[in-house]
Amino acid sequence: LGSLVRVDDAAVHVGAVNTLVRTEGGYVGVNTDVYGFDRALLSEGIDLRGETVIILGAGGAARACAFLCAMKDAARTYVLNRSPDRAVSLAADVNAYAGRELCVGLSLDEWSSLEEGDVIAIQASSVGLHPDSERAIIEDPRFYSRIRFGFDLVYKPAVTRFMRMVSDAGGRSVNGLGMLLYQGVEAYSRWMGSEVSEEAVMMACRKLTEAVNG
Predict the structure, then answer these.
(1) What digits encode the pLDDT tens for the residues 111-164?
(2) How far apart are CA 114 and CA 54, in angstroms?
(3) Structure confidence at residue 12 (pLDDT)
(4) Is 10 a residue whose pLDDT tops 90?
(5) Does pLDDT of 74 surpass 80?
(6) CA angle 48, 49, 53 (to 5 degrees)
(7) Which among 140, 165, 143 has a CA at the least distance from the CA of 152?
(8) Higher local confidence (pLDDT), 105 or 195
């Protein structure tokens, strides 16, 4: 990071840079995961403002999702992880950024203590990733009855067990292909200094879907 002239706010708070943008003064560090996740949600008609969000996992992807919840002014965010210490640490970082008690870190098996229903759930762990595609991080169907919209950051397989369990319980679910696509679009736009048309985004989405399912 010492060779960068600036790091954007999202990358500072997430603690990771995944894109370098060349400027006249030098390279700027950006984390496009945050913006890609936001655009993927918005493309599905989901705005996190005022929502209750459950994030499963506490790694790098979960961190980007948790900070986006703060940036978008979610009402409440829960981070559930096998190792509760990591969830609690992430929640503390998010709360320091938000300036309020937005985020709560819990162990994975504490999901049943949550009273909230009608939530947005983000599956940000590697559980269910191909070839280990027949597992979900939580297997109890009662958990999924709480979920209105489920977003699995895994995109291969195209329909994960997590997604099936959300759908079987009456919720709507999508995979992480949109996030992958939009974080790439965000990087390209910054490199080229121009916006990518929605037509081009949809064409890229079709090709990515074919590649993942092929």
Answers:
(1) 999 987 899 999 999 898 887 788 999 999 999 999 999 999 998 888 999 999
(2) 10
(3) 84
(4) no
(5) yes
(6) 45
(7) 165
(8) 105
> How much is the mean pLDDT over the chain?
91
Residue with token string 């002014």: 73
Q: Cβ distance 60 to 84 under 8 Å?
A: no
Token pair belonging to 81 = 């992880």
Tell me the one-letter amino acid at 134: E
H-assigned helices in the chain: 9-14, 32-43, 60-71, 84-98, 141-144, 161-168, 177-192, 198-213
β-pairing, 119-123 vs 52-56, is parallel
> Is it true that the peptide bond before 131 is cis, omega within 30 degrees of 0?
yes
Q: Which two tokens stand for residue 8?
A: 């954007």
- Residue written as token pair 């081009």: 200
